[in-house]
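User: Hi! Is it possible to get a structure for several chains at once, not just one? Here's what I have:
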Amino acid sequence: KQEVTQIPAALSVPEGENLVLNCSFTDSAIYNLQWFRQDPGKGLTSLLLIQSSQREQTSGRLNASLDKSSGRSTLYIAASQPGDSATYLCAVAGGQNFVFGPGTRLSVLP
Amino acid sequence: SAVISQKPSRDICQRGTSLTIQCQVDSQVTMMFWYRQQPGQSLTLIATANQGSEATYESGFVIDKFPISRPNLTFSTLTVSNMSPEDSSIYLCSVALKAGATEAFFGQGTRLTVV
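Assistant: Yes, the chains can be modeled jointly so their relative placement is included. Here is the combined structure:
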């Protein structure tokens, strides 16, 4: 059974810092991995999708990497802004649905 | 991509009643899913909504409590039946354009409070 963990559980940084969020999964037989952002009480916004054959994806200030063999992914956020404050979830797809990690709650202080 | 509209966005309900949540997609999609997110927790899959047949439920979720309909490729409903305060959660509809290695899209969720 696939299990997904995320470290750290919470993170508070001053504006402008670069930061890394970590995601680990136990079963490397995945189709893809997706990073989401969730604002309090709201739904999920897709940030980046990495197919199993890919190593990384970039969108603006975000860069996500995938190391399937070690069961790890990282989300790198450059030059963080207060508007980046949210919970970040990673999810892995090994079949028809996704298994979610518990999330990292990020606060970027002005 | 897909745009998903979920209704209602939030509701406060009395215990013992039922609430039906609607999920409308702007294009035909193969896969539709319903998730629950309890306060402070991550997402847990309730079921896969199958067009033209009964939904496929995950362990711990049953049809009597969470009946699901999917009459076509753009619409699904989830009913939370005989509600108790423990059902207070955010319920999210998700779609994938096809089975397998594709991106998942989510609605904005329904925030349910049972009193």
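Chain A has a mean pLDDT of 93. DSSP finds no helices and eleven strands in chain A.

User: Great, thank you!
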